[in-house]
From TrEMBL:
Upper lineage: Eukaryota, Metazoa, Spiralia, Gnathifera, Rotifera
Domain annotation G-protein coupled receptors family 1 profile: ranges: 1-219
Keyword annotations: Membrane, Transmembrane, Transmembrane helix
InterPro entries: GPCR_Rhodpsn, GPCR_Rhodpsn_7TM
GO MF annotations, alphabetized: G protein-coupled receptor activity
Name the UniProt record assigns to this protein: G-protein coupled receptors family 1 profile domain-containing protein
Main location: membrane
NADP as UniProt keyword: no
Entry GO terms, CC: membrane
TM region(s), chain numbering: 47-66, 86-111, 131-152, 173-193
Keyword Transmembrane: yes
Length: 219
């Protein structure tokens, strides 16, 4: 099924993101080596790689939820759009789109005078604080997954209770998607608030309380 491929691809992306996160944390904490403070190339690539993975996974979940909705529709024309071929094509388009969309990170991120990998461009700050974090990374995945999952639930409630193995499998897949939606909502809201705060206060002079608060948010 197409939804299986989409959810599987999302899980693979999550594993890659977790792996990169652990590596980026293990080196500075365990070995006191942070290459993002030493190499401009690694600074740029680490941020770019993380941004692409971070947005690709929820996007694939959104498409999986839409696919699940199409599959639950009584209209045969709508169900026809739920196909393995379209799902594989959508995965390629999503990855290519987010790789292109996050190219500005490769341009604007640099190591500043304090040896911190960050950006200091007003246009990118505004884009990151008011478009990227709150909309693309925050509200859009939450709204899309919530709306289409409710529509799917409504369609399934109108149908006969599942009796065949395929229908039971569909119900299990819906439960898996619902759980992943909850996780996305929880993690997205926290990351969205953190990114908006960091972006807005990027050029502000930081006192001890601000530093403590930012260190807490980074944990």
């Amino acid at each position: 099924m197409a939804v299986d491929v989409l959810v599987g691809a999302s899980c693979d992306v999550n594993l890659l993101y977790l792996q990169s996160f652990l590596i980026n944390r293990a080196l500075p904490v365990g070995f006191q080596v942070d290459y993002s403070r030493l190499s401009t190339s690694w600074c740029k690539f680490r941020i770019y790689y993380g941004l692409v993975l971070a947005i690709t996974s929820p996007t694939l979940v959104c498409i999986a939820v839409v696919d699940r909705y199409l599959l639950s529709c009584c209209n045969a024309n709508l169900r026809a759009y739920s196909s393995l071929k379209i799902a594989k094509f959508a995965i390629q388009i999503v990855i290519a789109f987010w790789m292109l969309e996050n190219i500005p990170a490769l341009i604007f991120y640099n190591i500043n005078a304090s040896s911190v990998c960050t950006y200091n461009r007003p246009e990118y700050t505004n884009y990151s604080s008011y478009v990227l974090s709150p909309i693309l990374y925050g509200l859009a995945p939450i709204l899309i997954t919530s709306i289409f999952d409710l529509l799917t639930y409504k369609n399934m409630r109108q149908q006969i209770a599942p009796s065949s193995s395929r229908e039971r499998r569909d119900a299990q897949m819906s439960s898996m998607i619902m759980l992943q939606i909850v996780l996305i909502v929880v993690s997205t809201l926290a990351a969205m608030i953190r990114n908006i705060y960091v972006g807005i206060t990027l050029n502000n002079q930081r006192g001890p309380s601000h530093v403590i608060w930012e260190n807490f948010l980074d944990k």
